[in-house]
Design goal:
The complex is a heterodimer. Helices cover 50% and strands 22% of the residues of chain A. Chain A is built from 10 helices and 9 strands. In chain A, β4, α6 (109-121) and β5 form a beta-alpha-beta unit. Chain B has 2 domains: 3-121, 2-Layer Sandwich (Nonspecific Lipid-transfer Protein, Chain A); 128-212, no CATH class. Helices cover 59% and strands 14% of the residues of chain B. In chain B, strands 3-2-1-4-5 form a 5-stranded mixed β-sheet. In chain B, a hairpin with a 3-residue loop joins β2 (47-52) and β3 (56-61). Classes of the chains: A alpha/beta, B alpha+beta.
């Protein structure tokens, strides 16, 4: 007993280190990527419809505001991580023009295919690259992009700090990162209302439209487990970003974090 | 919800729905492909940027005008003005005067601003034809003929009402001065102002002479 006693906390610590959250559940870190992949494989086809339905179209305004704050100009190289069905990429493609380029990266092949088909159907082909990539280990050279955006993707990453470090590496000096993500509502009343909507209405919507309540239950849980505004800002700074700030949108339901690499 | 995003989304939707209604606008839009016009219109708290490709993308600019000007390329134009000056911008002959009066600042390629102005000013939409596509020719023609008649009649009635009201106020009740009387009064005030200025000048000279003695 006494022999085992000292090793127990070590084992517990090791187990703790190897676990991560998947919604409210704790899973092995190695499992999270495939579990998230299952979620997105399941919702990819109905992703856009569900986004419009769940947010009553407001997600389009959040994304538009992100693009406004990106300051994209002709000739810029933009990386849209977790770009999903290409909402941001479509806009960036027109803004950077033929002299610039946009790379749509997503770890999930199903989402990437839906995005690629959608953008090609809209005639956007000339300056867009599609890359299946893990945000934690981006397969791009150092100092390569002028702008990196990540909309509603960071909370699904297993090691968020690794992703921010990786983004910092691929950004050019003077470049900026914008992370649009669900966050913590600033008012108590809104928070209660939002909880009720997330845990009672959202899964039912998912069941009704996408025939998948579990994925939308995960969505609600993963939002609650995501770092709050100040914590994420601290993670930006830890990765090396400067002039970090964030703006709460719709009462803090969503926050846009911004940081520069100098 | 960011109000600027809602505004730009609405503007973008409106512009991209209206432009294709004039088949000639495609050529004017093509000429602008790759160009960008940024406008800072006081007192709007943000700038508006119009980027041209096969469509028009409207975005809010949250950077300071100086930052935008510093990053201008040969296909960019940035204007800074105020809401009250906007109507005057329709007359291109007034641009130089507005720039001299510092009511308008133009940086970058002025031709882009002129082309954008032409894109919207030269819009020629056959609304009757547009309506005919969703109804039919007869209904559309009838609706527009009726609309024109109503417009003419309302204009005529408003004109008559305005004249009658003017006569009653000026001639019968004498509640307001006649237009000619107002003009005469303005002229008299101008003459008096000039006389006062002359007298003031003479007094100053007299004062100077007295001081010298």
């Amino acid at each position: 007993m006494s022999d085992n006693a000292p090793s127990t906390p070590v084992k517990a610590a090791q187990t703790e280190q190897e676990k991560t959250d998947f919604g409210f559940s704790q899973v092995e870190k190695t499992q999270k990527a495939s579990l998230v992949a299952n979620v997105f494989d399941s919702v990819a086809a109905k992703y856009d419809i569900m986004n419009d339905f769940m947010s009553m179209g407001v997600h389009r305004l959040w994304k538009r505001y992100t693009i406004d704050c990106a300051g994209a100009r002709a000739g810029h190289k933009v990386l849209d991580i977790a770009g999903g069905t290409g909402d941001l990429t479509a806009k960036f493609s027109r803004l950077v023009g033929p002299t610039g380029s946009v790379t749509l990266a997503d770890i999930n092949l199903s989402m990437l295919k839906v995005g690629r088909d959608k953008l090609r159907d809209r005639g956007l082909i000339s300056n867009i690259d599609y890359v299946q990539a893990d945000a934690e280990a981006l397969p791009f050279p150092d100092n390569h992009f002028d702008i990196v955006t990540m909309a509603f993707g960071l909370r699904n990453v297993t090691e968020k700090q690794n992703a921010l470090n990786s983004i910092f590496r691929v950004l050019k000096p003077g470049g900026r990162l914008l992370v649009l993500e669900f966050s913590k509502p600033t008012s108590e009343q809104l928070s209660k209302l939002y909880d009720m909507y997330s845990f009672h209405v959202l899964p039912k919507m998912g069941q009704l439209v996408a025939n998948d309540a579990d994925s939308y239950q995960y969505l609600a849980e993963s939002i609650r487990m995501h770092p709050d505004q100040e914590t994420l800002k601290g993670m930006f700074e830890q990765a090396g970003f400067e002039q970090c700030d964030y703006q709460n949108l719709t009462g803090g339901i969503v926050a846009l974090h911004r940081g520069y690499k100098f | 919800m960011p109000a600027s995003a809602l505004l730009t989304a609405t503007l973008e939707q409106a512009i991209n729905r209206v432009l294709p209604l004039d088949p000639d606008s495609a050529a004017r839009l093509q000429a602008l492909s790759g160009a960008r016009l940024t406008a800072f219109v006081a007192p709007l708290p943000f700038g508006l940027s119009l980027s041209f490709s096969e469509q028009v993308d409207v975005h809010a600019v949250h950077e300071a005008p100086a930052e935008v000007v510093a990053a201008l390329t040969e296909k960019d134009c940035c204007i800074q003005t105020s809401l009250s000056v906007l109507p005057e911008l329709q007359q291109t002959s007034q641009l130089t005067r507005l720039i001299q009066q510092q009511k308008l600042t133009v940086d970058g390629e002025l031709q882009i601003a002129q082309q954008v102005s032409a894109l919207f000013q030269q819009l020629d939409i056959d609304w009757e034809d547009q309506l005919a596509q969703v109804t039919n020719d007869v209904i559309a023609h009838q609706a527009f003929t009726t609309g024109r008649q109503v417009h003419e009649r309302v204009s005529s009635l408003l004109g008559t009402f305005s004249r009658t009201l003017g006569n009653a106020v000026v001639e019968e009740k004498q509640l307001a001065a006649h237009r000619l009387a107002v003009m005469h009064f303005n002229d008299s005030v101008s003459t008096l102002r000039d006389d006062v200025a002359r007298a003031e000048s003479r007094l100053e000279k007299l004062e100077q002479r007295l001081t010298k003695r």
